[in-house]
Write a structure and sequence with these properties.
By secondary structure, the chain is mainly α. The chain is 61% helix and 3% strand. Helix 3 runs antiparallel to helix 4.
Length: 136
């Protein structure tokens, strides 16, 4: 996903400059390091989200449908980088984020468990000269 963000940055800022200075470059087929980078980006994106979707399903850490949407988004691979194929993954990430936020808020406001507070045992004062003097 970080590599995809780098691609988006490149498309937003570098491509317009290239289109102005050397438009013929954009008509060339992908080859060499650029092709390797594109394959690595799409491959890592696909594998990463697919593995995360499987792990989320197995761990049952998030709502099942959200985890399934992550899996579908990951399996969509290169298509998930374009609309409308990115919608399942976008919904899943938002849903998981909301789930984490609500769970965090719930833990922060949770009351302490009911029941008596454990009593502290008295400890002998090591600075005392009396053997019977005890600190609470």
């Amino acid at each position: 996903t970080v590599m995809v963000a780098g691609d988006w940055w490149f498309e937003a800022f570098a491509i317009p400059m290239i289109a102005t200075a050397a438009p013929a470059v954009l008509d060339l087929p992908l080859s060499g390091p650029l092709l390797v980078g594109a394959i690595a980006t799409v491959g890592l994106y696909t594998v990463g989200w697919t593995v995360f979707g499987i792990a989320a399903l197995r761990a049952r850490a998030f709502p099942r449908i959200a985890a399934l949407l992550v899996l579908v988004g990951g399996l969509a691979g290169p298509l998930a980088l374009t609309t409308p194929y990115q919608i399942p993954l976008a919904i899943a990430i938002g849903w998981i984020g909301l789930t984490l936020e609500l769970e965090s808020d719930r833990r922060d406001t949770a009351a302490p468990p009911p029941g008596p507070t454990p009593a502290r045992r008295p400890v002998a004062d090591p600075t005392s000269t009396s053997s019977t003097e005890v600190q609470p």
